[in-house]
Write a structure and sequence with these properties.
Elements lengths: L39 E4 L2 E4 L53 E2 L4 E5 L2 E5 L5 E3 L4 E3 L6 E5 L7 E6 L3 E7 L4 E7 L4 E7 L3 E5 L4 E5 L3 E6 L2 E6 L7 E3 L2 E4 L6 E7 L5 H6 L3 E13 L2 E12 L8 E4 L1 H4 L10 E2 L6 E5 L2 E7 L15 H12 L11 H20 L3 H18 L7 E5 L4 E5 L12 H18 L6 H16 L14 E2 L4 E2 L12 E2 L2 H17 L3 H22 L18 E3 L2 E3 L8 H6 L16 H15 L7 H9 L3 H11 L11 H14 L1 E2 L10 E6 L2 E8 L5 E4 L5 E4 L3 E8 L15 E5 L3 E3 L7 E5 L15 E10 L8 E7 L7 E9 L8 E5 L2 E2 L7 E4 L4 E6 L4 E14 L4 E5 L5 E3 L4
Antiparallel strand pairs: 1-2, 3-4, 4-5, 5-8, 6-7, 7-32, 8-13, 9-10, 10-11, 11-12, 12-19, 13-18, 14-15, 15-16, 16-19, 17-18, 20-21, 21-25, 22-24, 23-24, 26-27, 28-29, 30-31, 31-32, 33-34, 34-35, 35-38, 36-37, 39-40, 39-51, 41-50, 42-49, 43-47, 43-50, 43-51, 44-45, 44-46, 44-49, 45-48
Helix pairs in contact: 3-14, 4-5, 4-6, 5-6, 6-7, 6-8, 8-9, 12-13, 12-14, 13-14
Amino acid sequence: MAVSRSRSASRSRPAAALVLVTALAAVGLGPAETPAAAADVPVGSGSYSDTRPAGTSGPTTNTGAPVTPKVTPGAKGKPVPTNDWWSSLAFQRYGDNPYSTPMYGHPLTYQATAAGLEIGYPTTPAVVGEGRQYEYAHKRDLTLGLTGLNSPDTKADAWSDWTVTPYWSDGTRTLRTTIGHGLPFVYAKGAGGNAQIATASTPAVFADQGNVLGITVGGHHYALFAPSGSDWNLSGSTVTAALGAKDYFSLAVLPSTDALATYKKYAYSFVTGSKASWSYSAGSVRTGYTLTTQAQEGSETGTVQALYRHQWLHTTDPLTSYTYVSSRGTMKVREGKTFTTTQKSSPVLPALPKSSGVDRARLKTHLDEVANAADPFSGATDTYWTGKALGRLAQLVPVADQIGETATRDKLLGLLKGRLQEWFTAGGASEFSYDRDWKTLTGYPASYGSDTELNDHHFHYSYYVYAAAIIAQYDRAWAADSAWGGMVKTLIRDAANPARDDTAFPFLRGFDVYAGHSWASGHQGFAAGNNQESSSESTNLSAALVLWGSATDNNELRDLGAYLLTTESEAIAQYWFDADQQVFPSGFGHDTAGMVWGSGAAYATWWTANPEEIHGINVLPVTGGSLHLSGHKAAIRRNLAELVRENGGPAVEWRDILWEFESLADPAAAKAKWDAGQAGYTPEQGESKAHTYHWIGTLDTFGAPDTTVTGDIPTSAVFSKGTVRTYAAHNFGASPRTVTFSDGATLTVPARSTATGTGTGGGDPDPDPDPPTGNVFQLRTGGALTTATGTTAGSDTVPSAGGANHDGTPYQPLVYEAKKVNGTYAAGASTAFRIQLDAGTAVGLGQQARISYDLTGDGSFERTETYRYFATDPVTGWETYSESSGLRSATGTLGNLTGGTVRLEVWSAIGNAPAKLRTGTADSTLTIPFG
């Protein structure tokens, strides 16, 4: 479950805040088991204990009984990925449920029972809890099992990045199923009984092909697949098939009955594993998703998978017309075992840069208030509140350094080092202890179930890694593995381990690579599935990894942080803030969610119904890793407008957090509120007046972050005010470097420093434009197609083809889009374009264009046109690529545009070097055949 954030270390749960969880959560822990004698494990200058402190607890059931992973002998000893969508299979939170709680794979939902696996496909949302929660709750359509199966429990037998294999055995019959995110299929292997599907109501048969049966249950269409030579037999609400000498069968939920032939093709190609891969390069994050399969009969090894919204928004891989309903909006189906997404990397800075909008004397006064406090840690003793205090102090180190307050800077660094070293040394009042059974490192004193439920490790430890990264920026020796860096990396291994072959910790404990975000509950023991409240504390860890990796020359951890932050940023925008207004059901009536559940989302927190905390919990802590929130400014404005409505007026308790949030969309408005209210408020416990003053004054000077432009290192950002862009970057290296931005601007940054520079041509960075008018579009750096006339030329870099042939298939394309386009199709007219390219002196390059038309803006492109590539010459200077190169291929037909989307993609079809594409003026245009 997600941790509470109260005004003090204690918390209460008002009834109004917990309508959503009264039927979900059980509380109350019994006595802890007695630990064995402890031994310290040295790590550099630090250490952790291999046994938890006396009088403390590890993972338990809800009644306090100690619990170990519920896995098969074959899986015993392997690190169990707690905090996942299916964790209740392995973490038995309730003594009377040895199976599982509902698990939300999407599009299917599941629950393990004695008779096998319950399967559902919820398609109609319910709005509950006085309108505070929407849910697509698990409801059984059918149960997959074997005749006579009556297993005493269900165990986790195997798992991969987003799939899991539950196991049942009653001594006579054994059953294994493989289920996962995005899988319309359930794959089963059984012995000792016939295949059995028990339906919740009498099914209607729409297709009977012997070993393939199509049935409709509760309005949902399923296809059942038995081995060749078998035959499904229906009796009332029970369907059985003899397996003979075979041991396999499967079923799939169909998007429609006419999809049966497509799905039948893949019914015996069983998914056996899943794996995500990622890379960061020059301001871009590329993620690959791959399924492994094994043919049970025949030679087909392909499959189908359903993509979440945050995935299909960023892929250029072909998708089918099939879709599914889910609590995350529409899922779209792809035929194939792999797909790839490409996103602009989210910006990160150690702190906002120095600006003229911050008065040095005033800032020094606020800094002294924190540095000279009688107790800078505000009495914190547990992992969470200590972390909050560490974060508050760490935020101010670069700020003090900016204004030459080196004594204050060093005092703050000393405080951070001292407290971290206490925690990083076993045997004291605070320490980290390793649990051999659960393969986890828990801090004691623990808080909010971080010990007994394995909750929130990524939240708590994010502050420790962030504080350590700030120290490493100024003292690299302290951060060495042989000093205190080894303990920092051990915390990272617990919360966000990038290594799948690590035998001591699971791969990415909290982060769900397919869902695109983290989960907070270690056991997932709720009817609504797993949950996450403070998504911003999850991204705090991701940003901290970028900073730590950059400061310690660890590109693996730096790039991991860039991947996690960029991916979760889009998930937060879509699923917490409903940025495109395409996810929350119409009856929900809210513009933001405080918590996301497997089944949906809730306008709530774990500890209060106060709107200020509901709106602020997914913002704090505000750091140089929060700039990604600025990518959807209209969503910020809707969010804050709802806050005022729900609150009956402006914020009172968390006004600093919410002022800082507003400054990411409207800095001047936030500055006015600070000026009017700064004298009479108490900072949120992870904030300080020094940091809030610096943040708001800086953004008022530079403008809001402009996430349409990226730098070629992760620690860079761009701000826009009017037509002026301010470029910022931090160089952790020992020598100066030049940072190149995607609009062509460059910035030279001295060694171990933050630098800023300005340029023009930014225009309005707000990515929520009015509908365009006209049919001639200019290309803008950042990915926009606009009918506005530009006069400032820029350029984008077309990535190299890498020496491979990508003729006809987009490869790391530049993507330009116009949305909300209206127009009447001009029959007989055709697409035209003029794109200026320059390959410099590179030989053998060819760039290619594809234009796609989504006529209604629903994400499905009805017309796609791919043009023959243009062979650029090896002479510096602009050349013109146009439709006269000829149409290579086209699919679909054109019609009228009604709120539609027009997309232009440009990529390198051949060659081994990048090229430039001109943007910003009428030199590069796209003309569409609409009036």
